[in-house]
DNA sequence: TTGAAAGCGCTAACAC
DNA sequence: GTGTTAGCGCTTTCAA
């Protein structure tokens, strides 16, 4: 085994010495800035490659007073929706110098605060974060950061700088219209325990508002804690139907539990969508390939990621009033009567 | 709208002036280093909070010559397995000063190289990256970085510094033993097109080796490109059974396509596990809640994340030979005969 | 087209 | 327990 002395990390100076070109010019070459003759350029590039030099962005960032990072703060990676948002962001950032850095809050506002603090201490060029609900310190930090801040997923509420998302209130209303239009009248809702999930809460509010407007009460609600899974969907569906056997429609707060409910109902021999209609929310890919396609609302996740990234990157202007509202898109699937 | 002058970002100096304490002592307080009297401490903290000061880690990192970041490089976030690995990493890093920074390669070695280059330019304290297959430049960079490098998921191959994972060869052999032990003899394999997926390739090799050893040939293979989904699983299952209708076992390279196959086979009325056995790989949560539990191998994702993080954090020593091998765990489910 | 000087905001090392 | 000094590795600015 070779005696592996702990190398001093390489610096610009090493490349400068190896190439016989000043540090400044080496720096120019490595960043493609300013005019450098082809010959010097070549020398520098060769030297850098030979040495295996990797520039130190810490020093660079300090000197230039800016850093090409975009802080992206989301509640969870386990939730199927966020990878989609991230892929939209990456796609749009790919042809810019900006790079996303992901932080995860686990749906906790205080964790969000500390994640933001850590990320802002790297002085990113922009921030993208999920939701409009943040604690006071987080809002203060974001305002003090004086970089673009884009809140995503939701537009129903107060915006710090810019919001890109759908109206979940509207999504709830839209679903109510579809449910009522299809003739269902005894409707139940299944969702996460509310304090944590502001967007589901807004959808429920939109649903109830529209139902009430039509004189149709929401018959039952069932809430759960923790992550979503097919198993949870089965369990909650069984429970709500045990309590209220004559329900004719179940609106789930996400596709995963909706799919679990769907599988369970089919096994029980329910007539879907004839006697019982079902709908979820998000429009995740997972639904393709289930025995029946669950009705759902496409929450425009990839688009949201893209547009947010475009705004942070300066590819498109900040929308008027700071809100960019995308339209939630109802997808009928096979689990709601035509 | 208030005239919002572009503020100069706050510095230590501002806190120093506001509190009447030297910059150095302010720095000490903010980092909990060295002895500072309770009184000064209080003054500093108050001043910092009032101003809304967020330390500049770029400057800090440059001065201290180190940065509490761990680069985590994975192929994809859409793949259900990586969020699990990441949660293991986070869990173990949570009580250390280290923070994970995620980079995504989209299963491309050249993209891996550029992601590594970018991450190493931040001079992280350690690197965790998926797989043992990297291009020459990537290996060179990692070796030159002189920080702990932990390759995860796989241990069948050459290690740069440390590897934490399971043997996929062994997982394939183990599955072969289970399949043969249950009496299946006409076995097919369904998986991703190989060049991209080294670990699936190793499982297939392990499977074939063990089958061959028992004098049982692998009857059919079906490969696909792109992401995994239930729909893809259905499609491939239909195709392989159209070609080879007398197969009595299907081994899938992951649970998602396995689950799709399972759903399809049930709809076709196949007798599972009687006439046809099925197994996937990974042991993802998704499987709970399907009509039948797919047989699978638990790939120890969370444990892998934890152990890798522990090694990077110095909580546990680098294993001998640089390889930490966890045992893949067969889970029979309901789709293989007892 | 190239180079020299100054300094980004913080912390290590040492003095008091 | 607190302060002073020097300097981390780059880029900005300006001069040549």
UniProtKB/TrEMBL annotation, chains A, B:
Keywords: DNA-binding, Transcription, Transcription regulation. One of its GO terms (molecular function) is transcription cis-regulatory region binding. PROSITE patterns: HTH_LACI_2. SMART domains: HTH_LACI. Residues 316-338 are annotated as: Disordered. The lineage of its organism: Bacteria, Pseudomonadati, Pseudomonadota, Alphaproteobacteria, Rhodobacterales. Residues 10-64 form the HTH lacI-type domain. Gene3D superfamilies: 3.40.50.2300, lambda repressor-like DNA-binding domains (1.10.260.40). It comes from Paracoccus aurantiacus. InterPro entries: HTH_LacI (IPR000843), LacI/GalR-like_sensor (IPR046335), Lambda_DNA-bd_dom_sf (IPR010982), Peripla_BP_I (IPR028082). This is LacI family DNA-binding transcriptional regulator. It holds the Pfam family Peripla_BP_3. Transmembrane segments: none annotated.
